[in-house]
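Need tokens for this chain, all 410 residues.
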Amino acid sequence: MKKRYLILVLIVSLGFITFLDRVALASLATYIKADLFLDKKQWGWVMGLFILAYALFQIPMGNMGDRRGHRSIIAVLVVWWSIFTFLTGLATGYYSLLIISFFFGMGEAGVYPCISGVIARWFPSTQRARAQGFVWAASRLGGGMAAVLLIGLAESAGWRVVFYLLSTLGILWTLAWLSFYRNSPAEMKGISTEELSETGGHSSIGTKNVPWQQILRARQFWLILGMYWFYVWGSTFYFSWLHTFLAEGRGFSSNEVRIAAALPFFLGAFSNSLGGMISDRLSNKHGLKFGRRAIGVSCLFLASVFFFITGITESKLLTGVYLALGFGIMDIMLPSAWAVCLDVGHRNAGAISGAMNMAGNLGGFMCSIMVGYVASSAGYNAPLFIIAGMLLVSSMLFLQINPEKSIVNT
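Here are the structure tokens for all 410 residues:
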């Protein structure tokens, strides 16, 4: 087996763990809010501070991975957030949970930009969207399993025990990562000449200095940031508010929440794998511009439609179906969005994808706060219409992105 496929197993498993840990907080919202006496607005801030930290540290962590190598940086990040996963179980009230949530988000911030950097170094361009798709598919499986497994565990052992157990997964993964991964194909023992040629044998560190002046002058860069800023309003609803919306906004029982909250993530796992393969196939046949745009524009538009029609139905069954389809279709787009950063960023892919994810999660921070306040005053349907509009704008911005035009000179 080629070495890069073993690396893919590692980063795919990391994708699973990141979202199992992240969505655990949203999955157990009912129990945490009741135990710590939190209202909707306070919960919006708890989830919002995680996203804010997640946003602010995207560029520094992505840049650090590009400059110092992803082996050590990813290891430090995983250990960091595993510690704060454990500390989440020790939270005593609103303010302690706010602080822990912020530092938890800081630890998870750099993982996906660094994973993009790993893919850029280890996979040829024709396999990158597919690799991104597998990673994001695993993240969705993690999010789905959070609802399926953790709610029942919290009911039997308490929500605090869940976070104690989750913290051990990251530590175990880090040991496996450090024992196998190397920062470049050229450093990997036992790699074949054929694979070295396929990967290009990149040096262990991308660039000593990211050319930010050149990047910031590129219209492409701002289109990517804008597209993702509007898109993450949609994903944030699922990561931070879905479980609460189902329980409080539609009256779902605990068992119904467990099923309905898991379905979008399981469908998203399939969608990410499918989206990566379709994007690479279309790109190979019709060029990167058509391959990336066709997926991004159509999926974001359809996701907007499903958010809108969810807001005008009170049926539990249709709510579950529309939300699952909306997330699943939206996730078909995700590998293309991240592959665009690799297409235009090359060795600075970690920094550019970090900037994109930072911009997106700044939008997510605003969305998390917005849902808490709007739901308190106007009910849970109103935020869905706002999010539908944001996704429509994201679709229009994706139409203007040209992945065949590099942001930096290589």
